[in-house]
Design goal:
metal-binding, 17 helices, about 10% strand, single chain, 4-stranded antiparallel β-sheet, about 625 residues, Alkaline_phosphatase_core_sf, Alkaline Phosphatase, subunit A, disordered N terminus, alpha/beta, 18 strands, metal ion binding
């Protein structure tokens, strides 16, 4: 190449690089011009908009959020399901035993990504047509003044990637026509690969890459999203080795459908033949031994609508054990896929410079498998006129070989396993009044910055705390504006104070919860809880998953979690003044954070689900997904 041509190419390359950097900067924060513009170049003074760079040595950040995993499921927190990757991360980092979610997926995810309570970011329910309402706390549309962690980090020099479940795009916007401002790309992610809804078939997912739907390749979704995450990171590190990245890794696992290759589920053959009562006892003993729960904790009685395992006929035991074998294999396989990501980070010498948070579940274990489990998606007729438990059981026994297979399009274990997976708590997903619905384990891993390896932390935390924790640890202030839009205050409390101090008192002292009628309020170890009970008998199989779990009457309960880890002793009558104080605090929080109007499952059924079933039964089949 002759010298002149070489110079031209270099200049063009420089112009192109500048243009690319400036274009990216526009999506970040346009800097004000500080030069002088005269009539001629001689009278003018140039000023360049410099690309924003992260501080030298800034760590990569990985947030991992699993779906529908109970507190006592993983071996990392006393469970009997093998999760060696999570064990390793926790043994070289910290375990948090007093961390909380919103009790159901979309509110948890919206709160996590924004650092603000779910109703504050308009995600009191879901972004689906069947459960959103035209009120500020309920329309399912995260406002632009509630910026996400991805938006913040991208504006401070990070690349941002997301794979797996998003769950926050309104149904009306979730086509290839957009608009895309509430797709992941519109909320700060440079690249996305996964699905926009609440659940999807693991072998035939409703798959999206960036801003368009794409065809799945037939492999399990966990495999595909891990490959894509590794691809995103590898491509970025090749182009900009010193630039940090943020990865939000959010598999659909272990939400229904429970689908996994037999090599994983068959590894648990016979492991659950002794049933859910024995499972609970074993996990409870492990949790005490590991220091996960206080030594004084008492295991609650089995919930009254769950039968004793030893009272079940042999065919039911066989069926229910197979459900749990599949679930356990599904969870272990998910841990394996996270392990592939961790191994890759180690291979490219990035693991020691990566801050990893693992939230083991976006809510408690799922109660949506009913009493006898679910294998296939309900037909339109069953939505209108649900089958009896006896009919469901007969159908499941005929189709037992489909559990875990691609044909098991809605496979989910029965209710007895939900309580077992939530050991040592009483209830489960959707129950915002219960620790069983809201308490999920957290792992924090960062070899360079966490001195204690294998430490246990009992400070109170909530998903809104991860964003401020990340920002404080990185030394990044919460922005006043994002793309020119003034930002609302972050509502979470950083947990960074507890990284090096196991005995530090909790700084997150007040937290409310509300999911379609079920509610609670926490303050300084005390908790007032209200278990919503639908006013009428279920009118569909979707409704039956709501009412089956709550035997309590519609009365407030009061617990002192400092002395009663798993809410066994109701103190409402003993301390009525404390209960009134907390109920008043809940109302204050409700007004402050957009909880009004109090929309319940009754309202969802009457105003949304039943009209949808009557109008379009086929469409309704795909909407009862949580």
């Amino acid at each position: 190449m002759n010298p002149f041509r070489k110079t031209v190419v270099a200049l063009l390359g420089g112009i192109l690089l500048y243009a690319q950097a400036d274009a990216q900067n526009i999506t970040q924060q346009q800097q004000p011009f500080k030069g002088v513009v005269g009539k001629t170049l001689a009278e003018s003074k140039e000023a360049w908009t410099n690309p924003i760079k992260a501080p030298a040595g800034a760590p990569n950040v990985v947030w991992i959020l699993l779906d529908d995993v109970g507190f006592g499921a993983t071996s990392t927190f006393g469970g009997v399901i093998r999760t060696p990757t999570f064990d390793s991360l926790a043994n070289n980092g910290l375990r948090y035993t007093n961390f909380h979610t919103a009790a159901i997926c979309a509110p948890t995810r919206a709160a996590l990504l924004t650092g603000r309570n779910s109703h504050s970011v308009h995600e009191g329910g879901f972004s689906h047509v069947w459960s959103s309402f035209g009120f500020p706390g309920w329309d399912g549309r995260i406002p632009s003044d509630k910026g996400t962690i991805a938006e913040i980090l991208r504006e401070t020099g990070y690349n941002t990637f997301a794979v797996g479940k998003y769950g926050l795009t309104p149904d009306q916007d979730a086509t290839d026509a957009g608009p895309f401002d509430r797709w992941p790309s519109g909320k700060g992610f440079d690249h996305f690969f996964g699905f926009l809804g609440s659940q999807t078939d693991q072998y035939k997912p409703d798959l999206v890459e960036d801003n368009a739907h794409v065809e799945p390749d037939g492999r399990h979704l966990n495999d595909q999203i891990t490959d894509k995450a590794i691809s995103f990171i590898g491509r970025q590190k090749k182009a900009a080795p010193d630039k940090p990245f943020f990865l939000y890794y959010s598999p659909g696992a272990t939400h229904a459908p429970h689908q996994v290759a037999k090599k994983w589920s068959d590894g648990y053959k016979g492991k659950f033949d002794e049933g859910w009562d024995a499972f609970r006892g074993q996990v409870f003993a492990n949790q005490k031994k590991q220091g996960i729960i206080p030594a004084t904790t008492v295991l609650p009685e089995r919930n009254p609508n769950i039968k004793a395992w030893n009272s079940l006929p042999a065919d039911e035991k066989k069926l229910y054990a197979r459900f749990m074998e599949v679930y356990a294999g599904y969870l272990t396989y998910t841990d394996h896929e996270v392990g592939r990501l961790v191994t890759y980070l180690k291979q490219i010498d990035q693991l020691d410079n990566t801050l990893i948070f693992v939230v083991i579940g976006d809510n408690g274990a799922s109660k949506e498998g009913d009493l006898s489990g679910v294998i296939a998606r309900s037909s339109a007729a069953a939505l209108i006129q649900p089958l009896s438990e006896a009919e469901k059981l007969r159908n499941n026994l005929v189709e037992i070989d489909k559990i875990g297979e691609p044909e098991g399009t809605n496979a989910n274990y029965p209710l007895g396993w939900a309580q077992a997976a939530n050991t040592p708590f009483k209830y489960w997903k959707q129950d915002a009044h219960s620790e069983g619905g809201t308490r999920n384990p957290l792992i924090v891993f960062y070899p360079k910055g966490i001195k204690e390896k294998g430490g246990i932390r009992h400070q109170y935390g909530h998903v809104i705390d991860l964003l401020p924790t990340t920002l404080e640890f990185l030394g990044i202030p919460a922005p006043e504006q994002i793309r020119g839009i003034k930002q609302d205050a972050i509502q979470g409390t950083s947990l960074a104070y507890s990284f090096d101090n196991a005995k530090a008192p909790s700084r997150h002292t007040v937290q409310h919860y509300y999911i379609f009628g079920s509610r609670s309020i926490y303050k300084d170890g005390w908790k007032a809880a209200f278990a919503f009970k639908p006013s009428a008998a279920p009118t569909s199989s979707f409704a039956s998953t709501i009412s089956v779990a709550n035997p309590e009457q519609n009365d407030w309960q009061l617990y002192n979690l400092n002395d009663d880890f798993n809410e066994r002793i109701d103190l409402a009558k003993k301390h009525p003044q404390k209960l009134d104080e907390l109920k008043a605090l809940f109302e204050e929080q409700a007004q402050k954070y957009n909880l009004y109007p109090y929309i319940t499952w009754d309202d969802v059924l009457k105003r949304r689900v039943l009209p949808l079933i009557k109008q379009d039964p086929a469409k309704a089949e795909s909407k009862g997904e949580k």
